[in-house]
């Protein structure tokens, strides 16, 4: 399974961005996908997850109400719509996928930079 993120960039605080994660290869193996982010000097943080089979989603408290994770199964693409962006959302965003319902992620993208200017 290969994952490729796109859509990062520079945006002003209060603005919006949509990240995409295109998956290819043995995508039938994927059970859960998620977005992580890592800001300079900080630990990697799980932002949101989505279960492929039923579309169930979960969000970190820091992004609830502002970010929306979704997936177009026909296109094998996952999205992260980010609204009301804050400077603290600045980070490298990674998409990830795992084969099991729980546990560590098996596949990772290369990351895309999101910078929010205040």
What proportion strand?
Answer: over 45%
* CA-CA gap between termini: 37 Å
Q: Give the helix/strand class.
A: mainly beta
Main sheet attributes: strand count, strand direction, barrel closure:
7 strands, mixed
N-to-C SSE series?
A: EEEEEEEEEEE
What's the total number of strands? 11
Shape: globular
Treating each run of at least 4 consecutive H or I residues as one helix, how many helices? 0
- Poorly predicted residue ranges: none
Task: Give the mean pLDDT.
Answer: 97
Helicity range of the residues? under 10%
The Cα radius of gyration reads 13 Å
Tell me what you see in this structure.
This protein has about 120 residues and is an all-beta fold. It has strands at about 1-5, 10, 15-25, 30-40, 45-50, 55-60, 65-70, 75-80, 90-100, 105-110, 110-115. Strand 5 (about 45-50) and strand 6 (about 55-60) form a beta hairpin.
Features:
single chain; 118 residues; mainly beta; seven-stranded mixed sheet; four-stranded antiparallel sheet; 0% helix; 53% strand; globular
């Amino acid at each position: 399974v290969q994952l490729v993120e796109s859509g990062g960039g520079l945006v002003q605080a209060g603005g919006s961005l949509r990240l995409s994660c295109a998956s290819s290869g043995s995508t039938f193996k994927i059970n859960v996908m998620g977005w992580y982010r890592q800001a300079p000097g900080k630990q990697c943080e799980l932002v949101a997850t989505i279960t492929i089979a039923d579309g169930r989603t979960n969000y970190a408290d820091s992004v609830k109400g502002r970010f929306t994770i979704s997936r177009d199964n026909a296109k094998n693409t996952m999205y992260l719509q980010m609204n009301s962006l804050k400077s603290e959302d600045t980070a490298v965003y990674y998409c990830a996928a795992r084969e099991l319902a729980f546990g560590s992620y098996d596949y990772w993208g290369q990351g895309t930079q999101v910078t929010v200017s205040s």
